[in-house]
Write a structure and sequence with these properties.
The complex is a heterodimer of chains A (115) and B (116). Chain A contains no helices and 11 strands. Chain A is globular. Chain B contains no helices and 12 strands. In chain B, the strands form 3 sheets. In chain B, strands 2, 5, 6, 10, 11 and 12 form a 6-stranded mixed beta sheet that branches. In chain B, strands 3-9-8-7 form a 4-stranded antiparallel beta sheet, with no helix packed on it. The chains are: A mainly beta (115), B mainly beta (116). At the A-B interface, strand 4, strand 5 and strand 10 of A face strand 5, strand 6, strand 10 and strand 11 of B.
């Protein structure tokens, strides 16, 4: 069964450094998402992406964050200057379409630890 | 406001017991979908089921069953004859329509521990 893949599984970065989290969505999916889960807390929406542009973003997704689809398969989340509070599990998800009935399929997540 | 409440923070049962995980939601959308996801200790999110707001039929899939009651805004999840491998955090989620797409709003999760 096709799946969303994320790399790396764990990223340790010094505060203030840039970090790029990578995702390969399911190949026929058109909508892409990033969610974040701070340890022990709920999963929160960050951003959705369609047709090579951001569709929606949450208030968490400030100027330090950016997303890109640099080629036909990868979808990346960049944090420009990491802060301690960026430590979390970051999930990439994709869906066939953007409709409400479309399940979003999640990757295994990247655990980001900021020191 | 759109909101999902999972009041049970943690449940502990002995293997083979039945267990029900509660989910209550609030939404202003007239049409919406509800989902359950499982997060095992390894951390990934695994899609279990979706249910649309017009379909109140209960669903059974093996040992899993779901009870959707629109009148009480609840979408509860029952595991029959629980097994140790069912130990995980379970999240209920609700779709919320944004301008051009939908996002998932998650509850805070229920940690289920199934003891041998």
């Amino acid at each position: 069964e096709p799946e969303v893949t994320q790399t790396p599984s764990h990223q340790v970065t010094q505060m203030g450094q840039e970090v790029i989290l990578r995702c390969v969505p399911i190949s026929n999916h058109l909508y892409f998402y990033w969610y974040r889960q701070i340890l022990g807390q709920k999963v929160e929406f960050l951003v959705s992406f369609y047709n090579n542009e951001i569709s929606e973003k949450s208030e968490i997704f400030d100027d330090q964050f950016s997303v890109e689809r640099p080629d036909g398969s990868n979808f990346t989340l960049k944090i420009r200057s990491t802060k301690l509070e960026d430590s979390a599990m970051y999930f990439c998800a994709s869906s066939e379409a953007g409709g409400r009935n479309q399940p979003q399929h999640f990757g295994d997540g990247t655990r980001l630890s900021i020191l | 406001a759109q909101k999902v409440t999972q009041a049970q923070t943690e449940i502990s049962v002995v293997e083979k017991e039945d267990v029900t995980l509660d989910c209550v939601y609030e939404t202003r959308d007239t049409t919406y979908y509800l989902f359950w996801y499982k997060q095992p200790p390894s951390g990934e999110l695994v899609f279990l089921i979706r249910r649309n707001s017009f379909d109140e039929q209960n669903e059974i899939s093996g040992r899993y069953s779901w009870n959707f009651q629109k009148s009480t805004s609840s979408f509860n999840f029952t595991i029959t004859a629980s097994q140790v491998v069912d130990s995980a955090v379970y999240f209920c989620a609700l779709t919320h329509k944004m301008d051009s797409s939908y996002k998932l709003i998650f509850g805070s999760g229920t940690r289920l521990l199934v003891r041998p």
